């Protein structure tokens, strides 16, 4: 076990045992725990990091103490944008979005103003230190308060509401991206390639969450329900077929997101519209089929 790992684990243990308060070099500082999913291993990794708040944003910096390579947690969040944040005694999921261009420079200036040590780290390396905004992955700002979850029907509906909101969010960001491209595009010029990390991270988070939801239904919920309602075999077959259709579109989107700088924006928007149409129809159909069956099943399950 490396000394760095041992030190990090001791900080994590102290943080969780004392409501987010630690001693040593972090004493009195703003510290959070960031849990990412390994880009290759798929294993969760927790890292203690300093953070800076500015104008409602929560930011961490991939300084790696000024080393020539980005830290592992940064590579992890590019592969799996949904992360877990712990601050004090609070814990929640967030979507990790690295800032780009002028926005990154502006946010980094605020970071340095709050914590001058990051400027020293930047001067030690030729790489641009990433500034990552941790956007809370709860319901969209301004949305109605979530309904209480008492049955499995409520839980299914909660997940569907979240998926619809995230898809709407990605579509709005894509529309804004196209509007910005058009504003800087000369007459007769083709649109510039690329999507930007903001769209990439949100769309990838949505796609991965959608895949997890559908795989869980196919492997667990559908077989259990079908055993109790064999007369609905055709309905479940249709739902599985819809999952496969959505998965094919999801694969197309994920392939485009793999090359964020060179992605074809028009093709991305076309696939996103296909996803919106197919997924909306599927969620509507699934709710019509399953909610009446799940309304009497308590959630969480009664032991």
Describe the secondary-structure layout:
Layout: H1 3-17, E1 31-37, E2 44-50, E3 52-54, E4 57-61, H2 72-79, E5 82-87, E6 90-98, H3 101-114, H4 117-123, E7 131-136, H5 152-183, H6 197-228, H7 233-257, H8 265-294
Antiparallel strand pairs: 1-2, 1-5, 3-4, 4-7, 5-6, 6-7
Characterise the protein shown here.
By secondary structure, the protein is α+β, with helices and mostly antiparallel strands. The two termini are 40 Å apart. Strands 2-1-5-6-7-4-3 form a seven-stranded antiparallel beta sheet, sandwiched between helices. It folds into two domains: 3-136, Roll (Pnp Oxidase, Chain A); 152-294, Up-down Bundle (Four Helix Bundle (Hemerythrin (Met), subunit A)). The chain is built from eight helices and seven strands; from the N terminus they run H-E-E-E-E-H-E-E-H-H-E-H-H-H-H. Helix 5 (152-183) packs antiparallel against helix 8 (265-294) and helix 6 (197-228) runs antiparallel to helix 7. A hairpin with a 2-residue loop joins strand 5 and strand 6 (90-98).
Based on Cα principal axes, name the global outline: globular
* Order of helix and strand elements from N to C terminus: HEEEEHEEHHEHHHH
Strand order of the largest sheet: 2-1-5-6-7-4-3
Overall average pLDDT: 90
Radius of gyration: 22 Å
Class from helix and strand fractions = alpha+beta
What labels would you give this structure?
303 residues; alpha+beta; Four Helix Bundle (Hemerythrin (Met), subunit A); seven-stranded antiparallel beta sheet; 8 helices; 54% helix; globular
How would you sum up this structure in a few lines?
This protein has helices at 3-17, 72-79, 101-114, 117-123, 152-183, 197-228, 233-257, 265-294; strands at 31-37, 44-50, 52-54, 57-61, 82-87, 90-98, 131-136. It has 303 residues and is α+β, with helices and mostly antiparallel strands. The chain folds into 2 domains: 3-136, Pnp Oxidase, Chain A; 152-294, Four Helix Bundle (Hemerythrin (Met), subunit A), CATH 1.20.120.
């Amino acid at each position: 076990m490396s000394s760095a790992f041992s030190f990090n684990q001791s900080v994590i243990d102290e943080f969780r045992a004392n409501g987010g308060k630690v001693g040593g070099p972090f004493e009195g500082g703003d510290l959070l725990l960031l849990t990412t999913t390994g880009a290759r291993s798929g294993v969760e990794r927790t890292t203690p990091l300093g953070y800076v708040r500015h104008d409602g944003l929560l930011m961490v910096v991939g300084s790696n103490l000024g080393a020539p390579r980005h830290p592992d947690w940064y590579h992890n969040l590019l592969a799996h944008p949904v992360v877990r944040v712990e601050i004090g005694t609070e814990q929640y999921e967030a979507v990790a979005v690295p800032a780009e261009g002028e926005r990154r420079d502006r946010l980094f200036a605020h970071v340095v103003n709050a914590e001058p040590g990051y400027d020293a780290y930047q001067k030690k390396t030729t790489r641009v230190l990433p500034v990552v905004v941790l956007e809370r992955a709860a319901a969209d700002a301004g949305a109605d308060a979530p309904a209480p979850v008492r049955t499995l029907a409520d839980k299914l509906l909660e997940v569907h509401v979240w998926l619809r909101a995230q898809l709407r969010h990605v579509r709005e960001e894509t529309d804004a991206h196209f509007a910005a491209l058009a504003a800087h595009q000369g007459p007769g010029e083709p649109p510039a390639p690329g999507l930007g990390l903001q769209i990439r991270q949100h769309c990838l988070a949505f796609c991965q969450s959608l895949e997890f939801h559908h795989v869980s239904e196919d492997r667990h919920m559908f077989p259990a329900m079908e055993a109790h309602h064999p007369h609905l075999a055709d309905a479940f077959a249709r739902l599985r077929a819809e999952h496969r259709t959505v998965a094919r579109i999801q694969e197309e989107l994920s392939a485009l997101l793999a090359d964020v700088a060179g992605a074809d924006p028009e093709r991305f928007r076309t696939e996103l519209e296909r996803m919106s149409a197919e997924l909306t129809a599927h969620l509507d159909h699934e709710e019509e089929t399953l909610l009446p069956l799940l309304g009497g099943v308590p959630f969480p399950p009664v032991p």
